[in-house]
Amino acid sequence: MNYKVKILGPNATHSHPVGRLDISVGQPYHEGEKLAATIQWAHARFGHVIVSVADTLQRFNMMADGVEQGEAWQKSYDAGTEWIGRNANLLKGCTVIRWDERVRHPLFQQFMMRTLDLIRDDADLMGRMHAAANQYADRRGVHHAAPRMGYLIEEMAVFDMLFRLEPAADVYPGSILPFWSHPAYGDRAAFTRIDFVRRVAIS
After folding, report:
1. Most Cβ neighbours (<10 Å): which of 81, 107, 119, 121?
2. What per-residue confidence (pLDDT) applies to 12?
3. pLDDT value of position 170
4. What is the secondary structure of 47-71 as a DSSP string?
5. CB 151 within 8 A of CB 57
6. Contact 59/40 with Cβ under 8 angstroms?
7. Cα(179)–Cα(96) distance, rounded to whole angstroms?
8. Per-residue pLDDT averaged across 171-179, rounded?
9. How far apart (Å, rounded) are the C-alpha atoms in residues 191 and 69?
10. Dist. CA 119–CA 135, nearest whole Å
11. pLDDT (tens digit per residue) in 40-64
């Protein structure tokens, strides 16, 4: 294996016996040797590893590119199915949970309403989320940020639910989104940011 995992911080790997690998389907760092290194690293640190596949969450990004909602859901769902199948050997010993299982949870709508109320009542949080959505739209060269805002709201609601119903240390090789440090979550959010270092070949 050519890569090993490096913790960038914060480091919540000691806060829970369960690790949750948050997967953005389509991102290079969730493929191949980097994915293998992440799973190997997680098994060495946690008693149990959940692989949370955010496949249909990506429908919002497709919608921002002009794809119709139903088609965007189908394409993102198919991409998740293909990702799970392609990585089946790596995923042995992990619990794999797809995004639709999250949003179809019987309590999800309660957390969505709580999230909408929280955003409405916190101007700073709302401003940070709008800024993140607008930055995404600018990077992609799209004319409206509403789908990306929908992405952030749904993601925020799902994690609010997970922090309470599925406590785990979240692991992701990306930046912390605007809601991670929100005081409403108290000490429930346990986020570890990682990166990858190429191993030096020994001659």
Report:
1. 119
2. 84
3. 93
4. SEEEEEEE-GGGHHHHHHTT--HHH
5. yes
6. no
7. 24
8. 76
9. 31
10. 19
11. 999 999 999 999 999 999 999 999 9
Q: CB–CB of 18/46 below 8 Å?
A: yes
Q: What is the overall mean pLDDT for the chain?
A: 91
Residue 9 pLDDT exceeds 80 = no
Distance CA 38, CA 30 (A): 9
Beta-carbon contacts of 69 under 8 Å, excluding residues fewer than 6 positions away, are 59, 63
Q: Are 111 and 157 in contact (CB under 8 A)?
A: yes
Give how far Cα 46 sits from Cα of 16, 149, 180, 196, Å: 8, 33, 22, 19
Q: Which amino acid is at 77?
A: Y
Peptide bond into 183 cis (omega under 30): no
Length of the chain: 203
Q: Tell me the per-residue pLDDT of 59-102, one tens digit each, with 9 for 90 and over.
A: 999 999 999 999 999 999 999 999 999 999 999 999 999 999 99
One-letter amino acid identity for 95? T
Burial class for 58, CB neighbours closer than 10 Å (0-12, 13-18, 19+): buried
What's the pLDDT score for residue 180?
A: 64
Q: Which CATH number fits domain 3-198: 3.90.470.20, 3.20.110.10, 1.20.1290.10, 3.40.50.11710?
A: 3.40.50.11710
